[in-house]
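Data availability excerpt. The first of two example chains:
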Amino acid sequence: MLYRGEDEQIKAQNTLGSFMELRPISLPDMIHLMKLCGDLPRNQIQIEDGNTSSQSRGGRRSSFILPGTLWCGVRDRAPRYENLGPRKRLDNCCRTHDHCPLKVGSFENRYGLTNFGFATRSHCLCDNEFFHCLKNVGNEVANMIANFFFEILRVECLQPLEKKSHHDTLLYPVNNLYYCDAYDEVKKCRFWKKRKVSYDYKFERSIDETQYYDVFIA
């Protein structure tokens, strides 16, 4: 089943927790598992191009989706998570990126950040996996998507702050570049913010000239 929105995700967790133990997992491990799930051989449920209109979603708002895919574009047209379009490998890249566990939607406020852009900002690990997935597909369409997303659109990704020593706690910032954006009920800081550099996926290096704010989730 495909859960949409934070409320539905909470319901899903409550449902699963009623009959099985839920264990925390790190974000890198989660992204790796998502990649492995996408690589598993299975009888994929495919939908032809003629059946990918918004009418098949029960009147859902129209979306701009790349022909031959259900996930590559604005929103998606997949009735279920298992659905992929004829361009299966490419669609799998977009589907995995759409389900990044840590992201902030357009004009959405999460993790102490407000995204004023028109595109969703995902964790840098998700964007990095998306980039390499597209490169592994390697065809002209995948390269076009990679160029548009990373070279033209250039959506800034989210990178959590790393503690630099045992002195870096939730109560004290490392230096004056850090500041507290949100406190919990016992006045401990839950979100630190710091100016960071963006990431050049083409050359896999940081760019000091481009800066943005990141959050650390305690």
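And the second chain:
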Amino acid sequence: MKALRWLLRQPAVTAAMINQCSQQLLAIPGVPLAAAEALVRAGLRLQITAQQLVARAHEGFYGFAVWVEAFTAAAVPLEEWAADLPAELRHVCCCDRVTETNSEQLTPARTADLLAVAFNVAAYRRRHRDPLTPANYQTVLNITDVLCQSTYAYAATAQLPAAAVEALLRLAVQLHGRTTNLVMADAWPQIMQQLCSLPAAAQIATAAVVELVQQAMQTQGLLSVAFVTPVFELLAGRQLAAEHTERLLLTLRGPSAAAAAAANLRWVRMPGGRTAMAWLASQPGAAAATAAAAAHLS
């Protein structure tokens, strides 16, 4: 940062010169917030298009949210960096509440895009400042409102297809371990529960759900049983193939970055009252899967 501040103080470094590199800067992953803010103060301006924003959000790209925060923190007019964004994405980026009028106009596709952008903005919000700010809470409220059955936005949310719900669950798992906004970290279990309660969630393929459970259990840092449990419960009522049972047994019994959480998940009660382990033991081919898992771990 010292080198960057020194460079930006040089008379030869003008806003026009910085802006020649604007798109290259946007493509750099993991730019520190302080660096982004320094460049914005020095005159950096770039248009973040809706296409760029949405594509990067669905990828979980580690970088674009810092520019959104830098522009909003510096009170740069929206016309200078977000002229192309639809109203709901402007609200999300600026940590303003998505209005009922905006919510009523949402389609399922726009809802999926809104949630993807909101996940990223909320996860990375305020890395170097007081985490318990109103803006940090509002970024999370925009997500929970869209997923809440009692809001205007839910009409479109309830129509999300299985592929969109699966993609959002994968994005949530990806961002969960990177979350630096403490408000969002606390909200992830509720968000996962809401996503898994959507009508299309039950249509996600069993193999995909098993993979999501495995990925969630390997998340570093902010993992909690409450985050993984809603995904695991999507398997209730399904008949697992032996390979899926084996993979889950390996996840729950084997070495992992979240061994304590895995131990706790074993005792989670599935619908019907059985523990996760008892439910797995009831699956066809469970005995063979248990033997295979034990051999793999030995």
